[in-house]
Amino acid sequence: MVSSTTIHPSGRPAPADPADVAPLLPPGTVPDTLDGVTYVGLVPFRMHRVGWLGLPGVPYLGDFPETNVRLYSVDSRGRRGVVFLSLDAARLIPVAVGRLGFGMPYRWSRMRVEHRPDGTLTYTSTRRRPGALRATSRITVRPGEPIDDPTPLEHFLTARWGMHGTLFGRPLHLRNTHPRWPLHRAELLECDQTLLTAAGLPHPAGPPASVLYSPGVPARFPPP
């Protein structure tokens, strides 16, 4: 069981054709769609005091930035979730636990979060492994006004209560529980990244469909 508090400053989804992302999803799932369109999310955030196996969260090892590339999925039982194509994280032990224990595509990266006096946040990451899988990102956002009534797209992107994947060749659905995200709209000031193409996706052709910020929520992941 994992317990964590996450700061989720920027969701940057781009629209995608479901036929293009369907081959990237695990067996038993299909792209989840809104009005016939699915999305690709680029989400930087911070994990705070992560704990494993029901233990209390720990400092340092449990505190680290992370950036993921995600797709939006639904399985044959109607369970909506996300599929992670990559997860860049700054701590080696959580990366190893995620890869070996849950089969998740974690990458060990050099990462930094900058909070500037003008209220902007900048996330940077560089994968430590050289070669074809090496990728970088630099994302800067300015949080804006809180959202009292999310749009259908904002609800679609954030009301996710689990992830789909595979573990030892078998389908995996890992639930999570957390309060509703307190959302803010945000302005994207900078996005220079190669994470999407490294995950096998085309480079976005236009601006993001939505940019969101959240100050964070506590989350728990029961056993799969």
From TrEMBL:
Residues 1-27 are annotated as: Disordered. Residues 13-23 have a biased composition (Low complexity). SUPFAM superfamilies: Acetoacetate decarboxylase-like. Pfam families: DUF2071 (PF09844). Signal peptide: none annotated. It comes from the Bacteria. Coiled coil: none annotated. Gene3D superfamilies: Acetoacetate decarboxylase-like. PANTHER family: DUF2071 DOMAIN-CONTAINING PROTEIN (PTHR39186:SF1), DUF2071 FAMILY PROTEIN (PTHR39186). This is DUF2071 domain-containing protein.
